[in-house]
Amino acid sequence: MINKPLLVLLLTVIIGLNASAQDEPIIARINSMRDDVYTKLQNQQISLDKARLIYKNQEKRLFNDKKYPYYIQCFLFEAVDFYVTKDDYENAAKSVLEGMSNLKYISGVSRDTLFFQLNAELAEYYRRIPNKLNLAEKHFKIGYDFLLKKKWIENQMPAFVITFLSNYGRLVDDLGDSEQAFNYFQQAKQIGQQKHITLNMYAVLSNMAKYYREKKDYANALKLLQEALPLTESDDKTSAIYLAIARCYQQMKKPSDALKALNDSEVYYRKSKETQPRQWVNILTQRAEALLSMNNVESAEKKYQQALEIFIKNFKHQKGVQVARIENGLSEVYKQKGLTGEALIHCEKALKAADTTHQKSTFSFERIIAPQEYFVALTQKADLLATTSPKLSAETYLQTISFISRLRQTFDMPESKLFYSEKVYPVYEKALENIYQLWIKTQDTRWSNAFFDVIEASKAATLGDVVKENSIRPKNLDTNLLAEEARLRQKIVKLQVKLLDSGNEKTLADLSDAKIKLNHLINKIESSSKEYYQLKYENKKISVQDVQKKLGNNTAFISYFLGDHALYYIALNNKSFQLIKANNVQNIKKTLALTYQNINTPPGIDAYKGHFMAQRAHQYLIKPIEKTLKDVHKIIVSRHEIIGYLPFEVLEPKAKADYLVYKYTFSYANSASLHFDSFLSKQNAEIIAYAPFSNGAEAGRFRDQGFKALPASANEITGINGQILQDKQATKINFQESYQDKGIIHFATHAQVDDQDPSKSFIALFPDGKDFRLYTPELYNLSLHKTQLVVLSACETGKGKIRKGEGIISLARAFQFAGCPSVITTIWNAHDESMSLLSQHFYYYLQKGLATDEAIRYSKIDLIRTYSDHPFYWSNFILIGQSNPIDLPSNLNLYLILSIGAILVILAWSLRQRIIRFFLK
Length: 921
Prior knowledge:
This protein has 921 residues and is of the alpha/beta class. Among the domains are: 463-536; 544-673, no CATH class; 687-890, 3-Layer(aba) Sandwich (Rossmann fold); 892-921. Strands 7-6-8-12-15-16 form a six-stranded mixed β-sheet, sandwiched between helices. A hairpin with a 4-residue loop joins β2 and β3 (577-582). α5 packs antiparallel against α6. It starts with a helix and ends with a helix.
């Protein structure tokens, strides 16, 4: 929302754009009229109708004098002075629309400036009207696209552009996409720094602080809010900053500090010359939240009720974020009082406030006006119903998860999807517990399918969205739009890498700018094809029965969910399935951690001592489902949380080195839908291999770069019948020019994983300069849609940070993100010699016609028998994704031709005398 100082500044801009000293008396007259009317209105000396009449007479004079820019500007002043001050955004929007309809009287720079102003204000007014968020989003997009075309506007009116970007970011944040919202705030901050603007920068910093608060980075949030305090231009804005500080302390679980900040907020609020009921409602609401967290339930209830009464009195409706938040708070109050019925009533009221169609018509996602509060209300409702109506509770959980999935799909950047998935993640375990109990009680397949749906929804959500979109885009979208998108994504990757190497505040702002442009381009792409839009948001799920149909007679699928309170999993073969719950989750986690520690620790002179832990892990993960695995030879495992670090081949039923690798062929899946619904392109067996550190003679040079030589990697790639780039040939530039259109890409190199910031993880190529690392963002942007398999014979390429709702953010996942359906990867530091042997055996079996998972299994068994039975050496090589035979180009035909040729030469030599005599005759 624009304030009066900013409007005066904008009027000055109009003067500069329009001309002459003779206009100065007009400006003075307009400002004098505004001050006079505003003062008389405040003192109740004139009525609102009389004030409107004065404005209309002024507008009429300006129109008759053909001072059209000032005439149009008056509609904006009218909106602010009469309606915005009273939070009457409906009438404010009407005034602005009237001004926009009169833009036909002017052209050129003045028209562009006024159009941007009026459209920006209209967008902000619609943002304030609960059922007009779709219109707000539409006009913010129009304004931003206009800004991209008319870059000079940023120079002419930077303060206004800063406010526009800040407001746009707030809308995006209200709609749930905090990551994308931050890009708008970052862009606004950068303009302020470049142009040395302080006006309205307090709001930008406050909005940025909210982003950090939601990411639980409270130190950065509080720092930004302290920076914002000196920049506030009025008491009401200072009050708003203290309100934000209170919110931060409340989230830090420091309610006493929150109440102190709220006291400061109230002091400045009461000093303010303008009454702002929304702010007072927020102060009361946050007081209630702080009191509730201090178990002062009665006082909290009174504050919530007071806040609600003031809101209804001032705004004459019960819709939007503030009402939904209050009703959710009251629901929690009555829950703590043990009044479940009352709590449920307020849940319904919160849902009604957040959804304009709630209980009135068929649910429409597009009409949700407060998605975050809607999610809170649904979750609270499901929790309250859990004991009294388990079935309705389960249905509400499923509704919540469906809503989560739909909202996540509206986010265009992977970072946004990941962040949101983590925020809502706790609901999955609650849903699984409720649904599992219903399954135990009823044995109804409805609940077994629901159990499977929840596990599916909790895994690889972002990766699933990307894979799905990549499969439908080429068939339904304009190639020019896709090319433009590819160029923009490439720019983003370059900026991300620059930020990792030597980036600064400017790089971060450029990155935010590029991400915003990509977001707008994606919206343009969506609107360009109805077919694409329908397919993207199609709510198609893979069911238990679908999976069973796709399983062979000897194959099983197991999907795990390791929660805070229990381990849940489902095991399926093509005829039956089992649902399992194990309660002793802390013991399970400890066992899995110790098993992983035993197998990934480089062995010394002692024998392997992990047999007992491997047996215990087997008891938790496999023994309960032995009935389902009775006639099974292949197992596809969808892991979860720290289970993702464990190769199941090392598990032992009897703790006697009876590893499961002898009994089963294992492969691993991110989720059932990703594994069974993925589309395999036409087979392409052309291989390329990279071994940048195979030259032991250059060990010193490699060590100077932080790496050691990998001489065994030379043997590893020797048997590969394909293109080999070794040592100085295996540079980053050569990789970028050679990898495309290859069926198999093999890396025999170093890799480094950053568990704290996955974007810093990389694969190393030949260090011929500074730029030899392939960072994760670059891997995401590769084009691997013709690649069947990537082999990562490098350290920890399957390891990484665990993100709730997604899984392990590993280098292997990055290749899948880029379009490759299958990756062979490692989950701890690779041993050079054993990895080399494994790879050689793997290609040997692949060339014999075995599927990739079987080739890996036989390679491991060979290594156990010929090299070492310690799992450190042989179990670190796993397949994630599809498993199929690959018809490799073989050297056998060449060997056969050479052999036949040699035999013929020998025969000819031995029979040479007879041949000579024959020809002499």
